[in-house]
Amino acid sequence: MTKERMVYINGDMVPENEAKISIFDSAVLIGDAVLETTRTFNHKLFRWTEHRNRLLRSINGARLNFDLTPKELDEVTQEFLLANLPTLAPGDEGGVGHLISRGRMGLVLPTTTTTFVMYFFPLSRGLSKKAIYYEKGCHVVTPATRHMHPLTVDPKIKYRSRLHFSLADEEARLVDPEAIPLMLDHQGNLTEGTGWNFFLVCRGELLTASERNILQGVSRMTTIELARGLGLTVKEQDLQSYHAVTADEAFITSTGMCVMPVTRFNGQLVGDGKPGKLTLDLMNRWKEHVDFDFVAHAKRFT
Amino acid sequence: MTKERMVYINGDMVPENEAKISIFDSAVLIGDAVLETTRTFNHKLFRWTEHRNRLLRSINGARLNFDLTPKELDEVTQEFLLANLPTLAPGDEGGVGHLISRGRMGLVLPTTTTTFVMYFFPLSRGLSKKAIYYEKGCHVVTPATRHMHPLTVDPKIKYRSRLHFSLADEEARLVDPEAIPLMLDHQGNLTEGTGWNFFLVCRGELLTASERNILQGVSRMTTIELARGLGLTVKEQDLQSYHAVTADEAFITSTGMCVMPVTRFNGQLVGDGKPGKLTLDLMNRWKEHVDFDFVAHAKRFT
Amino acid sequence: MTKERMVYINGDMVPENEAKISIFDSAVLIGDAVLETTRTFNHKLFRWTEHRNRLLRSINGARLNFDLTPKELDEVTQEFLLANLPTLAPGDEGGVGHLISRGRMGLVLPTTTTTFVMYFFPLSRGLSKKAIYYEKGCHVVTPATRHMHPLTVDPKIKYRSRLHFSLADEEARLVDPEAIPLMLDHQGNLTEGTGWNFFLVCRGELLTASERNILQGVSRMTTIELARGLGLTVKEQDLQSYHAVTADEAFITSTGMCVMPVTRFNGQLVGDGKPGKLTLDLMNRWKEHVDFDFVAHAKRFT
Amino acid sequence: MTKERMVYINGDMVPENEAKISIFDSAVLIGDAVLETTRTFNHKLFRWTEHRNRLLRSINGARLNFDLTPKELDEVTQEFLLANLPTLAPGDEGGVGHLISRGRMGLVLPTTTTTFVMYFFPLSRGLSKKAIYYEKGCHVVTPATRHMHPLTVDPKIKYRSRLHFSLADEEARLVDPEAIPLMLDHQGNLTEGTGWNFFLVCRGELLTASERNILQGVSRMTTIELARGLGLTVKEQDLQSYHAVTADEAFITSTGMCVMPVTRFNGQLVGDGKPGKLTLDLMNRWKEHVDFDFVAHAKRFT
Amino acid sequence: MTKERMVYINGDMVPENEAKISIFDSAVLIGDAVLETTRTFNHKLFRWTEHRNRLLRSINGARLNFDLTPKELDEVTQEFLLANLPTLAPGDEGGVGHLISRGRMGLVLPTTTTTFVMYFFPLSRGLSKKAIYYEKGCHVVTPATRHMHPLTVDPKIKYRSRLHFSLADEEARLVDPEAIPLMLDHQGNLTEGTGWNFFLVCRGELLTASERNILQGVSRMTTIELARGLGLTVKEQDLQSYHAVTADEAFITSTGMCVMPVTRFNGQLVGDGKPGKLTLDLMNRWKEHVDFDFVAHAKRFT
Amino acid sequence: MTKERMVYINGDMVPENEAKISIFDSAVLIGDAVLETTRTFNHKLFRWTEHRNRLLRSINGARLNFDLTPKELDEVTQEFLLANLPTLAPGDEGGVGHLISRGRMGLVLPTTTTTFVMYFFPLSRGLSKKAIYYEKGCHVVTPATRHMHPLTVDPKIKYRSRLHFSLADEEARLVDPEAIPLMLDHQGNLTEGTGWNFFLVCRGELLTASERNILQGVSRMTTIELARGLGLTVKEQDLQSYHAVTADEAFITSTGMCVMPVTRFNGQLVGDGKPGKLTLDLMNRWKEHVDFDFVAHAKRFT
To answer: Taking residues F165-173, what's their average pLDDT?
Structure first.
């Protein structure tokens, strides 16, 4: 890895260490920005079109300005990916992050209309710490902090105003330093984690929160498709903590982890406390679907 | 004004144009930061101790790390102010902004524990556009976007995850390009604007939202004290839009504007559509209290 | 009583039996109208200015058009009263009702901008049936139907879209044909009846719902003033059914009934099931205040 | 058109100009009435049985008295229609409105048990102003006023207590004089307009609000049937504003307009800002289904 | 019936009259216990495995300790049943109740970890009073008391903290001494009764509340299966009182009553006020399914 | 301590070990009972009249039957106390618990109308474990479980259906085995613990939850009186977790502990993490008020 990772800022490629934006940018002053995160399998972006369309929906939902056409966005993203792929260690995969803010605010300097940033990261970095959980399963905890109300910022927008994600993280760690938070909505339904969706297996059916107050996860949708392909009934519905502590199996899905077993919920075992059979089946189907062993990948970099 | 405005970033003084932070800072990636804004009257910070204590409460409320003692924070702030005061045009006053984030996130570069930024801005810049409203009064509009629910991030924390402020601004402008948004809470009560508190005069009493879901505004508290000094009854209570459209007078308070009349609400006149008598009385009391004519100041720089 | 009661419709005086409005009026087609009801004591309107101001606030709150100045409204109302007072039986008192609608809708006929109706009624007619309750007290029941949410139509507006009042009446009568309904709000707090406010005496204090989701009753405010004059502590706060079934006394206030004891609540006795001592004291203070024995008046016409 | 349009009031046929009801009717005093509106295609009532059954459900839901049997209601309605059809201009169609109130209230005159009114209107009158929107699409705005809570009056009842409809209309016009309001429910979900239902096309699927807090629209159900006939997936679910601003297409359905494209939502374009392909397909299917070109009809009378 | 009914308490068989637990048990002091009720048809437990699994889910949901394996629980239950069956009168059937509490609390005596009680009752005792309703149908009333919020104790747990059931019963009886209560949830949706689920027949479809805030009733699920077997569409969805008063038929399901017609709802007739045709069909399918005429059984013991 | 503690059950005095009630009692089967707990200082009941009145209010609120007059209840309670006081160790104090249930349910045995139990406990038993916290302060944690909604069972009733108290306890212990739970209400406001009220000292003022959804605590009211006697401002208002983590001091009040400092809240220090000065002042005022050193008492029995 002799090449240096580069960051894209408003058309410029900048070395990662020097990738900075003005403190007067709306992203800094008021968290006024949206994002997208896409990963590669075998160095190809996974379902890029779906990610790109969701990003455009986030831009619309947040009433942001963005001048690139979908085609231009595809090209600049692809170009950015190719420039950074050579920085990956052998066997590793990469993630591309997009950030679109409303631009610099006019507090002292002239306003600008949009800030567009792309960054690249080796997936191994975040996943290596998580490899162990593919075997023992995660501990999911519902924090006191509630998920963003759709009337404030709709969670279907992938927005960056996420101080509550940090609060949720801290609160989950009060219960268990290894725990990860699953936020409830304001009626007490399970929603999503700080970057992942949640699934339960209850009496042979796959249950997951409806899209009302969660991000429309691409890995979530992939999982639903694969599950239906296996003949499973998948229900998108309101779920409560009761469902989790009485489920047979549980798992989470995310861009980075794909499918990750959950074996504890608020301190109680899920099922027998081991990754479930259907969960393992779905992990295998995922591996075939993306032609990539994401578990082996995570372990290799541990 | 030969001197250049400087920004303080983690101990360094940086020219404003070069004041940037890493795109991997939690402030950028997830809006995970708190803030404070304080202004000068006659080049002295107004009620700094109250602002500083509120900043420390925000840090606690957001579970952030911050190593400076209150005394050190006082000193570094004072020093920063003195360094920037000479950049002000004659007759102008300044604002000091604080930003404390959780620091750089470990996506690719090593994490850091806290980012501490201070910036300085001439108040004339923002106020000059508002001078006219001291005479004709503002138009306040309640946007569709609801204020942050206290169970997500308590509005008593002065946090930077404020994408909803931008949405509220845009929605208010749909009604009137000059309108400013007053957000409702999730039960439909009036809360606060995107940086200001709201007061009504109803049958001789001063009414304002209770502290349940608003920032504990320093200018708000100053106004309450001054009003009580004038013998007025001040009630902090749940208010609805009905109160505003049937009020005799209305005004807003903020660090920059101090007291600003409101003469229209959701397209309807407040009272007779002119700044009210009690409002003008309070503006005069304010001017005496701070020994500064903030209306003349704003007009001078128009 | 040789004279005929007259109704005022958009400037015309019409005999009661012929007092009709177009079925295309917004009052008929969509209940789009506000109202006010004022009564006389000794043939003088009680607190007319307060009623008139509330009517003007209702007009504003409902975004209706109304061209008369307050002074013109005073005059036309006074004139209307004088024209109808001679129709009263000896010893009786009268009520004046105002109705302001948005006018005829343009479904088939041309639109008009406002419909303004005043009607007159002898108070004895409604009160004679209620006289008995001054002695045995009313039975108040909380119906299933919830009070109008302030985000739909603020109950501080005295509006005519009151189908839910009829539903509440019917539901209360399911429990007891003599019962009258006290609606709860959407959080379960006690609000008001279908035309009256509710008071409790709990351990020496007078408790009543805050103005958040009730009409700002003139008789309610009169009662609060009289109670404070008697040295009582009066608290306006959220109340639940618990307060009523554990109260020492209860009563209601309204334009017609002034103060009326309540002795049963949802089938349970309030206190010892008889009108309370403080209630009777307040009734006496009322009689002095208005220089009129409203109980004797009701009984006389039984 | 030499004949005069007649109104039916409690068994009498009255010329439109003289069609009035007592100001003491519960419809006038408290908006205590239900309604139904049905239209003709080619001079035949469209799905009358469904409209009639819904009217009977509204009567039940509002606990109103109504003595006619379904068969008698059919007959009197048909008779009323036939009497009025000759008043239509050539090529025009008609609408029949039903109003059932609880009858005259006993404030001064004796009570009556039910008021039953039918009126007739040429559809051209209302539609001619809307013809242009079949081509450019409507602008839908979500007003501050929330839809009636089902615990106050269930929106599945077609009730006349609709002051909030007027408030919603006025608020929408603040944004755009041509805009029409789509009310949110108290959780922030999209419900319905002031007389129409709302549909979205999102990634090939047709989405519309579930029946929880909207009227069970006959045109809505017709549209769902036709869409399913075209092989489309139709989902009745909770929808938020996000869905509308990220949809590919949007339209509304109502008795008068049948299907009408929507091209703007809260100031943002829906899709590319032009009536969508699927919307146009459904409009064509509707025309076939009712054997009537409702667009041409509206344009003819512009 | 010469044998005496016995109660099982922590491993001991005790005569019913002497079946007592310490007043310091958590079941007594804080209602901290879960339950299950199962019945026999032809002296065999109906769907025991489903009941047992639900009991285990309740134990998990309530974070109780319970040491028996499912197999041991099966055996001890079966043994208990067999010991008590001989106490039944000829032709009668029995019910088995399970109670699991957190054990004795340490207020004065040493704590214990679990209290496990089983009791037995002849079904005829409770059903004989209900036999008449199989013919005339029940009167269902929605009480003021709301169902337990899932964030307090999830109604999917069959818990014993049911003071609100008693309140609901008393309130329903205020309307009609024979009425039984159907609780609403905090949004106003129909949930369940004090031990039974509720079904409606609306235009040929079977509607029942979704599992969000009701017990996952075994008889409810049996009914859904049988209805689907008859080719009926069954929808689990949010329902409001409107659905009940406009339904064609209604009925309830419970362990003891199986299927019981409902003919009145809040004082209004459901359909024509007689048990509906589909209801009777389902009752017949039930009788076949369980090979037992539960109506005849109830009548025999009247 | 040669005497044996006795329990009162429906008129009988029973040795503690044999104090049992039928498993068919409504307290056991459905937690249908209310309670009261009173303690002695110097072997005299503290504010018995207030406790007794609250018990009578609970009985009313729960629609229970209770035949004793207040005077009889006073006598039987006093008699019971005197019988048990001799069982106390030297220097110890006692607690008296009352339980009133709806009586035995008619599942198999005949119904009874009321069950009335009194029990006695040495306060040292529970307090000895808590003595250490008078010095280091408690750790208060807000659990996921929400407090009972007033529309289900009003928390102003001291009821025994408290499974949610156990859930809250377990959840608090997930964070810290020593932590105690402070439940939030359904809007996210702080309410009360599982038997205690909560106070904060914020900038010199004493803040505590309003009585809307908490028990009307006798120790709470005593503390408010003492604080006002010290010249402190006491505010009863909605409080959020923000208030606790930014408070200067915090403490709880209960019958057993009187006043107990709180030094941690959800893992964060309150103030400087030590019992606060005003808290200590109030503890001293309490000791004077009750003429008893409750801290020394607790320590003596450690």
So the answer is: 97
Q: Do chains E and D touch (3 or more CB pairs under 8 A)?
A: yes
From chain F, the residues in CB contact with C241 under 8 A are 154
Intervals of chain B under pLDDT 50: 1
CB atoms within 10 A of CB C112: 17
B6-123 CATH, one of 3.20.20.70, 3.30.470.10, 1.10.10.60, 2.40.30.10: 3.30.470.10
Please give the mean pLDDT across all residues of chain E: 96
Q: Is A87 helix (H, G, I), strand (E, B) or coil?
A: helix
Query: Residues C159-173: what's their mean pLDDT?
Result: 97
D13 touches chain C (CB under 8 A): no
Q: How confident is the model over C256-280, as a mean pLDDT?
A: 97
CB proximity B164 to D under 8 Å: no
- The residue ranges of every structural domain in chain A are 6-124, 131-300
Which among B142, B174, B176 has the least Cβ separation from residue D144?
B142
Taking CA D109 as the corner, what is the angle to CA D105 and CA D114, rounded to the nearest 5 degrees?
Answer: 40
CA F85, F88, F92, F97 torsion-angle sign: negative
Query: Do D174 and B266 count as a contact with CB atoms less than 8 A apart?
Result: yes
Residues of F in contact with C242 (CB under 8 A): 57, 61, 150, 154, 156-157
CATH architecture type of domain A6-124? 2-Layer Sandwich (3.30)
Cβ contact, residue pair E144, C266, below 8 Å: yes
Give yes or no for E245 touching D (CB within 8 A): yes
| Residue E2: predicted pLDDT | 57
Preferred mutation among E108, E160, E191 to probe F, highest tally of F CBs within 10 A: E108
Distance from the Cα of residue B280 to its chain's centroid = 21
CB-CB under 8 Å, A156 with D242: yes
Burial of C34 (0-12, 13-18, 19+ CB in 10 A): buried
Q: E-assigned strands of chain C?
A: 6-9, 12-15, 20-22, 33-41, 44-45, 94-101, 115-122, 138-141, 180-184, 190-193, 197-202, 205-208, 234-236, 249-254, 258-265, 268-269
* Fold type of domain D6-122: D-amino Acid Aminotransferase; Chain A, domain 1 (3.30.470)
Chain D CB within 8 Å of residue B229 CB: no
Task: Give pTM, 2 decimals.
Answer: 0.96
Q: Say whether B63 and F268 touch across the interface (CB within 8 A).
A: yes
In b/e form, how buried is each residue of A38-64, taking b as 16+ CB within 10 angstroms?
bbbbeeebbbbeebbbbbbbbbbbbbb
Chain A residues in contact with F241 by the CB 8 A cut-off are: 144
Residue D121 CA to residue D255 CA, distance in Å, equals 13
**What Cα–Cα distance (Å) separates residue C213 from each residue in C151, C158, C201?**
10, 12, 21
Residues 6 or more apart in contact with residue F110 via CB below 8 angstroms: F104
D175 contacts chain B (CB < 8 A): yes
Q: What is the pLDDT of residue B302?
A: 85
CA A189 – CA A185 distance, rounded (Å): 5
pLDDT digits (tens, 9 = 90+) for A96-109: 999 999 999 999 99
Q: Cβ of E269: how many Cβ atoms within 10 Å?
A: 13
- Give domain E131-300's CATH superfamily: D-amino Acid Aminotransferase, subunit A, domain 2 (3.20.10.10)
User: Taking CA atoms, what residue in F is nearest to A143?
Assistant: F144
Task: Please answer yes or no on whether D107 and C121 come within 8 Å at the CB atom.
Answer: yes
Q: How do residues F93-130 score in pLDDT, each as one tens digit?
A: 999 999 999 999 999 999 999 999 999 999 999 898 99
Nearest to D174 among B146, B241, B267 (CB): B267
Flag whether residue A59 sits within 8 Å of chain B, measured between CB atoms: no
Q: Is the pLDDT of residue F212 over 90?
A: no
Preferred mutation among B147, B266, B269 to probe D, highest tally of D CBs within 10 A: B266
